[in-house]
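Severity: low
Component: inverse-folding endpoint
Summary: output formatting inconsistent between runs
Steps to reproduce: submit the following structure tokens with default settings.
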């Protein structure tokens, strides 16, 4: 096998050994990684359309939109036998590519700074004036708007104009009290106390807790928005055979464990568990019970009109 494939990936969202090990196994192959901290599904789909990438990190919403736009290439799973190692419900939910990880959006906070227990999104909005400048939200529309919709009692996949308008109002209301919208190292400020509350992913809070055990994780009473993501192929790729080979390689338990151990994410390949750090495989934040999972709503593709509605609301929030 020979050639070069270009991977569009989130910053630091792969193990340090995976690409070098794959290139060593296939001496004629090069994997070039380009990192993008995109903040919306529309941006991810534009990357699919660009023709620059062979495979891309994309969540279920991105995949649905790319499929509708005709820029996603189905893969031949007979050439990816390790897909059988992925739990069935994740395989079914991520149909065009390989699922790699999932995550819940909840609340990380410092009780010693906040001064009281937080149990809900309502608590975050209520405490915002008191903790103005010490709160961080995620700079991704699906996660921040989805969580805000949960706060308001709606589905995090709604396309109702009324619900989305209330979502916009709620975000504009709290925005003056936010320290920042961030899409990398979201909860880092919780470690040194420069952030009191962070709307954050479960894996990020779990990682930061190891640096500072004062950090607490909350699965909000109103529910949580969540993502399921993986790698999918662009329609424009001329190296689908290499893409499929790389996907299969990434699902080898040893290589997959390198990814999980490096990112600290909740994982989808149970057979990799013996190779995964106990701090991850035995962490209740990353391996929640059924009561917590019942609060979770995963991304869905919003449809063409829904995507426009969401994008417009997000632009108005960011511009406010």
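Observed output (run 2 of 3):
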């Amino acid at each position: 096998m020979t050639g070069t494939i270009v991977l569009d990936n989130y910053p630091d969202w792969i193990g340090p050994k995976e690409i070098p090990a794959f290139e060593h196994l296939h001496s004629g192959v090069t994997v070039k990684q380009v990192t993008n901290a995109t903040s919306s599904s529309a941006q991810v789909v534009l990357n699919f359309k660009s023709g620059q990438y062979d495979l891309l990190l994309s969540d279920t919403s991105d995949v649905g939109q790319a499929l509708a736009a005709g820029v996603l290439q189905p893969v031949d799973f007979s050439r990816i036998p390790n897909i059988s190692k992925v739990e069935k419900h994740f395989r079914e939910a991520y149909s065009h590519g390989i699922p790699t990880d999932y995550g819940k959006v909840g609340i990380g906070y410092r009780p010693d700074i906040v001064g009281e227990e937080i149990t809900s999104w309502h608590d975050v909005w209520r405490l915002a004036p008191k903790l103005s400048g010490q709160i961080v939200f995620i700079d991704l529309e699906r996660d921040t708007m989805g969580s805000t919709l949960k706060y308001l009692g709606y589905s995090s996949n709604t396309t109702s104009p009324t619900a989305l308008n209330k979502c916009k109002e709620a975000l504009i209301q709290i925005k003056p009290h936010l320290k920042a919208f961030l899409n990398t190292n979201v909860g880092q400020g919780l470690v040194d106390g420069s952030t009191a509350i962070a709307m954050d992913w479960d894996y990020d809070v779990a990682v930061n807790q190891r640096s500072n055990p004062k950090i607490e994780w909350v699965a909000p009473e109103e529910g949580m928005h969540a993502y399921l993501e993986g790698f999918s192929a662009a329609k424009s790729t001329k190296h689908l055979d290499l893409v499929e080979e790389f996907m299969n390689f990434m699902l080898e338990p040893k290589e997959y464990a390198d990814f999980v151990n490096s990112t600290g994410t909740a994982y989808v390949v149970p057979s990799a568990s013996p190779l995964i750090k106990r701090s991850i495989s035995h962490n209740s934040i990353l391996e929640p019970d059924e009561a917590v999972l019942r609060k979770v709503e995963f991304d869905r593709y919003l449809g063409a009109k829904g995507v426009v509605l969401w994008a417009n609301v997000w632009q108005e929030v960011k511009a406010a």
